[in-house]
Amino acid sequence: GTTFKDETPFLREWIEYHRIVGATHLYLVNHDEGEARVASSALLKPYVDAGIVTELFHEDRSLYWQYQSWKAITEAAEGQTEWLLLTDADAFLFPMQGLSAVPYLQQFERPEVAGLAVYTCTFGTNNRKTPPKLQIEELTGRAPMGHVSNWTANYVLRQHLCLPSTSKKYADPQPGHVLVDTDNMVVSGIADKKRNGPKDKLRLNHYSLKSKQDWHRKTTRGWPGVVWDAAAKKKTLGQHKKNMLDHNDEQDRSMDRFVPLVKRALEL
After folding, report:
1. CA 98 to CA 90: how far, in whole Å?
2. What is the pTM of this model?
3. Are 209 and 142 in contact (CB under 8 A)?
4. Per residue in 216-231, pLDDT tens?
5. CA nearest 207: which of 116, 131, 97, 107?
6. Are 155 and 118 in contact, with CB atoms under 8 Å apart?
7. Nearest to 240 by CA among 265, 263, 218
8. What is the C-alpha to C-alpha distance for residues 223 and 229, in angstroms, rounded to an integer?
9. In sequence order, which residues have a C-beta less than 8 Å from that of residue 199 and are 6 or more positions away?
């Protein structure tokens, strides 16, 4: 499950990739507006008609917009899933071995485990000026594994063992259940999302900065829940985020084994 805004050129790659790694259904909250929403809904329609995607809408643009999105997704998915990944539209669940994440998730299907924390691996622009045709093929520069930009996680939840999501909270296990990371260490909810967690078995490859041009587009549109009084503040926040995320220190081509499969699915 994810929320997207102005991501139409990249949505099909995200969908087809996650189908390859084992997702049987995808929940997408459409935050586009006006003509952009018409275009993205048209792109999703074949997937919706085929029963592959559930398209959701909500208009929240407050500071807690993402919690509202998770709430919408978990409510739509209730009773429908064994594992539910809540992540960004530019994050790709990546099994370090093999093609499917499902066998690995099945190792955690123990009575006490309500969810799995999967930590981020941040990829930069790879010094591109224009957006890539295929992110997983062309964005190969990343931050070192221990870099602070990788100190965050998203959850793959066993939703039937979690408390209902609210407008300000999600991923809380029911009493008697726990969240764990891929090393089987108990994760204490939101607080332990911000640490240098394990990334050697399963990780989230995060492509926030697709190119210099694409990042300029994002800073121009702003971020939900953030209000600027002057253009200088917008530029400052955008530059701060770019300085944090645009690291291409190490080349990482571990996604190469998925490239031909995704290209075939996209008919490239």
Report:
1. 21
2. 0.92
3. no
4. 877 777 666 555 555 6
5. 131
6. yes
7. 218
8. 14
9. 119, 120, 121, 145, 150
| Strand-pair partners of 173 | 162
Listed in sequence order, the residues at least 6 apart from 68 whose beta carbon sits closer than 8 Å to its beta carbon are 58, 60, 62, 167
Query: Do 44 and 32 form a contact (C-beta atoms < 8 A)?
Result: no
More confident position, 207 or 62: 207
User: Residues 170, 175, 177, 180: what is their CA dihedral angle, to the nearest 10 degrees?
Assistant: 50
Cα separation, 98 vs 68, whole angstroms = 34
* DSSP annotation of 86: E
Half-sphere exposure in the Cβ direction for 34 (13 Å, CA): 2
Tokens in use for 147? 């870099």
Q: Are 214 and 131 in contact (CB under 8 A)?
A: yes
The answer to whether the Cα torsion of 201, 12, 64, 58 is positive or negative is negative
The Cα–Cα gap between 128 and 110 comes to 44
CB 93 within 8 A of CB 204: yes
Measured at the alpha carbon of residue 99, what is the angle toward residues 210 and 160, in degrees to the nearest 5?
A: 90
